[in-house]
Design goal:
It comes from Cohnella zeiphila. GO terms for molecular function: carbohydrate binding; hydrolase activity, hydrolyzing O-glycosyl compounds. Belongs to the glycosyl hydrolase 43 family. By secondary structure, the chain is mainly β. The protein folds into two domains: 270 residues, Glycosyl hydrolase domain, family 43 (Tachylectin-2, Chain A, 5 Propeller), CATH 2.115.10.20; 108 residues, Jelly Rolls, CATH 2.60.120. The protein contains no helices and 28 strands. The strands form seven sheets. Strands 21-22-27-24-25 form a five-stranded antiparallel sheet, with no helix packed on it. Strands 1-2-3-4 form a four-stranded antiparallel sheet, with no helix packed on it. It is globular, with a radius of gyration of 21 Å. The chain starts with 24 loop residues before the first strand and ends with a strand. The structure holds beta-L-arabinofuranose. Beta-L-arabinofuranose binds next to strand 1 and strand 13. The site of beta-L-arabinofuranose (FUB) has 12 residues, from strand 1 and strand 13.
Length: 425
Amino acid sequence: MRNSGIPADFIKSASSNPIVTTLFAADPSAHVWEDGKVYIYASRDMDPARGCDLMDRYHVYSSEDMANWVDEGEILRSDDVSWGRPEGGFMWAPDCAYKNGTYYFYYPHPSGSNWNDSWKIGVATSRHPATGFVDKGFIEGLGGFAMIDPCVFVDEDGRAYMYYGGGGKCEGGELGDDMMSIRGGMRPMEGLEDFHEAAWIFKRNGLYYLTYADNLDNNNRMRYAVSRHPLGPWDYKGIFLEPTGCSTTHGSVAEFKGRWYLFYHNQDISGQGNLRSMCVDELHFEDDGSIRTVVQTKEGVRSTGSAPVPAADAVTYAPVSGSSAGGLAEAGAYAQFERIDGGRGGRAALYIRYATDERLGKLRLTVNGADESLLNFPSGGGASDFSGRASVTVRLQPGTDNVVRLTGGQGDVRLESLTVVLLDD
Ligand code: FUB
């Protein structure tokens, strides 16, 4: 049976930052799509990290109320990209656009081993916002040295524009109807001050805003400029996000149910600039359209009121083998959940209840013997307080023989149960 929703004891009445804790995800590009939900297209900091070169396996997150975020699962990895660099990795900050029933996922990826000279902008498409993406190749004529971080803006008149850049250079141009070609070429975005990377465009009251990361050493801030035309020239306005504590900064702006939000990342969970976590805080405008400095909070934002429905047909499993009772502190100790029903097979959200008194415990997740990821289990209230909550979405095989294993050795984490929600494909 297919179902949806979140287990009742995972539903939060208020948000908190970072908004996703189980995986390290960065570079959030947020969009509100026609189903009324807000979606974040994020890059993924693989753990353990090595610079930003191992980044891979894009995940999408969705929310109905800004307080509860559902991991929609992985949509693309470097192995899926036929034209990409042979060593993989380097799946950096992406974006997504919607036009005429198709979702276009844009991502920067090098095409050669000399990674910073060979960037291209890849495109994958789907009829769904968070699953079913198929790689369509790259945009001809775009890319090269440091040219990363695509952002696509579809205007009210249906015309679409692409922006990208890095290393101090920002370019923009109009996309063709196929959303994969550039009409009339790209041109430099004029008027920006101290541009580094992470271009993002949005429109409010007829005014276009271009936000970006600046070059402050090891502590990038976010700046912005405005224009009456989507391709500028731009009128520089100032800094609106001070350093987050992370060496990179990257953000997006979206309006949801009448409020404006800034999505960005920091390194609060890991303390490492290459293991980042996404945050959201409110964005406020002055009467003249200028942006107030965003207040970075731990509390995050208020729920917009429409909390998700509790999952009705979710199935809960207890660990049936391994060493869950004694915790998973020892290297090689594991807890295993067996005979998990994957229904017809496909995406399944795993909701894990745990206890730990570690600041940050970690367990390695394997599904049917395949290594999925190292998962985070941040402090849950104490060694025997099973109020800790972690969730991640994976793919299960059809039928009831799925096996989920969590292996320890990185902090004392105890597992109570696993609830599985099968997601519509
Ligand atoms: O996440 C990898 C790179 O770091 C992004 O592409 C940049 O914007 C910066 O966040």
